[in-house]
Each structure stands twice: as C-alpha cells, then as structure tokens.
Amino acid sequence: MARAVITGLGCITPIGLGVEEFWKNLVAGVSGVGRITSFDPSGLGCQIAAEVKGFDPLKYMDTRAARRMARFSQFAVAAAAQAIADASLDLTTLNPYRVGVVMNTGGGGVADIAEGEKVLLEKGPGRVSAFLVPMLAPNMPSCQVAMAYGIKGPVVTSVAACAAGTYALVEAKFLVDRGEAEVIIVGGTEAGLHPLTFAAFDNMRALSRRNHDPQGACRPFDRQRDGFVFGEGAVAMVVETLEHALARGARIYAELAGGALTCDAYHITAPEPSGEAAAQAMIRAMVNAGVQTEEVEYIVAHGTGTPLNDVTETLAIKRALGEHAYRVAISSPKSMVGHLLGAAGALSALTAVLAIRDGIVPPTINLDEPDPECDLDYVPWVARPMAVKTVLVNAFGFGGQNATVVFRRYEG
Known about the structure:
This protein has 13 helices and 14 strands. By secondary structure, the chain is α/β, with parallel strands linked by helices.
C-alpha cells in the first residue's frame, strides 16, 4: 500500500473562516454557538446553532458561479481553495486524471429542496429555478471542486450521515492504495440550517434546548447534556502519495495512516448500546494503519453531547483500547463548533492534524460535571500541551454508520 500524507488544509467553520483562526479559537475554548440569525427560530424548542459568520462566497468564485451553487457547495469550494493554496499545489502542472476529489456530505441541499417547494407553492412551477436539482444534489460539492480546477480523476461523494466527513478520508486512502490517484482533495461539507430541518430534529428531541445559555449548550460527556447543537461549515485537505509530495518538496503535516468502516445494524438514529461495532471500527482502523493500541495518545471523539452517544462512545473506546483507554487524551471539538453533520468528521480530522503539528490537544468545554458513565480523560476546559504522534478520529452516524481514521506524525 502507498503511504498517504496531508499537505494542505482549509476550512470554513463557526469559529473561523480559515485554519489558523479556527485553530486559535478551538485551543482557546471559544464557542461559536448563538441564537439563530439565518431565520426566525421563534416557535421552535431549539433556537440556537453554530452558524458560519461573515462568509462571502465571492472571495472564492464569481457571481455567476455563486448563484448556481447551494451554500454547502460554496463552503466546499472555499475550503478546497484554501487547502490547495496552503499546499502550494499548481494543479495545472499535473496530469488531471491522476488527481481526484472526495467531498462528502450528510444532508446535501435539503434547505434548497425546502425553499424550492416554497417557491413552487407560492409562485407556481414557472418560478422554480432550473438549477435547483444540480444545486441540491449531494455530489455537487465534489463536482464543483473538480470543475473549478479541471480535475478529471476519481470524483466521489458518499452520503454517510454524520460519518461522511471521516469516511471521505478512508475513501481517499483506499484510492491511494489502489493507485487511482496521486493527489486527492478530501473533506466534508454541510449547510442544513433551515426551519424544516430544525423542526424535524427538534421533534426527535435530538437538539439541545439550552436556549438561555447558547455557548454552554453543547456539553459532551457532561451529566447535564441534553442534545447536540446544529452546526454548519466545511473542511478540505490535500492528500498526496508520499512519493508525489516528496518529489515536489511539499510541506507534510501528518501521515494518513489508515481507517475502517463498520455498521451497528441496529437502529435508524440510536447507537447500539454496547458500542461493539464502533469499537470494531477503531480496532480495524488501527490494524489497517499498522498501529498498536499503546501508540495511541489522543482520540478526537465524535462527542455529540447527546445522552446516548457519549456513553456508547466511552464504552466503545474501552472495548477498543482496553486499560490503555484511561491513559489516552480525548476531546470533542463539537463542544465549541456544534455538530457539522457531514462535515463533522472532516473537522475532527483537521483537529487531529493540527494537534500533531503543534503538540497541543484542544479542550472539551462545558464539561463541568462529568457523567459517571463517561469516566475517561476528556481534557476538560483547558487545552493540554503534549507530544502527539498517533491520533484516532471517530465519527458515528444515523443508521449505525461508524468510521475511524488514523493519523500519525510523519517520520521521514
């Protein structure tokens, strides 16, 4: 199998419109959660979210392109542009058939579907945009990135709920291992903030209703947690074969060592209580990456702040790592950025890579009263300086989709 490395990073998030701003705020424990501003949330039980603020698509594309893209595609193109620039990658000099894109999502253009139906009902069929279908299609972020840069290799989109962003990296590693591409633009994107989506999640009782304290609403592993906080954004990375990266003298952030996928086959929304399949994702990812249990120093947890997920993930980590689970630092970025659904795993992966780069583990904020059933080291409130060489990234989605990816410090 070919070695795969990370050479470029980009992001659009609720706490930063670029990597360094995001990372500074994440390490400092800054929350991006507040009362919803993109629509009037009055009447909803949950009225808070982690919105992307100040995003201007025209910094990354012209007006015509922006009008033909849904917000989740705009986010993806912007994050990809950042990552490509960060990697100092001139795609015009490469064989376009040796470059690929894997940009996953969870909900795609669900907000655009809802708005399109509103136009249909209020103004008639003649006013529905001819671009609605290509705007809302889940594969459009990958295709838009490919069109922006003339990428003609494998262009893939997998809709894997909240595991989608992590699965993108697993898929990228598979493509590298099979020799199908030398360079891949990889990530996840989501922009599903809409009253329809909120009403559905709200009726499911999945969302936190801590409206009086938005920044304290997402409380992974805390006894007082009451649901996740909806977020939006995108993360992109440039993945290259080690040979290709070295040949062009690229800066290498970390090695994408491996990953694995499993399924609970249990319930449409709830995790399987024992955490067995989630643990198998971690175990198989470590085997795939050639990593021993004792080498793992940090886990970027799925850590949604829901009553069921946090207990199940804790059990799964213990199943996968045994007694070593108590010696591993674990934290959840969602405590600050909310749950980016299809982009969540990619954001966790970005967190892992930056932790390796800078030797610091960001905190889990709002962890005031740990749940007795969540008894591992979740790095509460304050970032922890520590050498980080090997990181697991977890993501678990509706339908029981589990994905784990492994990053290692690059050793020449």
